[in-house]
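Full entry
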Amino acid sequence: MEKAPVAKNWLENLANGGARQVKDLGDGKPREFKALDVVALKGLEVLRAEKGLLFCKFVVPSHLSDKDGNWSAGAIATLIDDVGSLTVFSFFNQIKVSVDFVISYFSTVKINEEVEIEAKVLGPQGKLSSMMVEIRKKVTGELVALGKQWMSAVKPEGVDRKSKL
């Protein structure tokens, strides 16, 4: 089953403040959204969804601003984590967890400013997968933030969880 449409629907559901629970991501297990995810992604629009690639646009709402009227760093981090995780899901057809997450912030974004988000899987490296999310101002193309994540598959229940590192 192609997972890019599933990832797109999941993001759109979050962005529209939809149901807090998704019944099936292809593995038959229910997943629940956290309230923070729903708030941070409200209004996100998925423009393109392919295997290992998501392209979105987002107009920064006032409820995600800091005291100076800029898009808050925490809200940016939540968006990068959610969009990136679903991009990895669309490529590998499984839920993975972050083992390393780095964000570089380059410029600020004001309330009501539009940004474009491009998330792509960079590839597997052994048991790990890497992805990158770029956020740019739509009008100028200026880089706002760059997030990179390494992710690992979630072990099924009942599997010995002792580290093999």
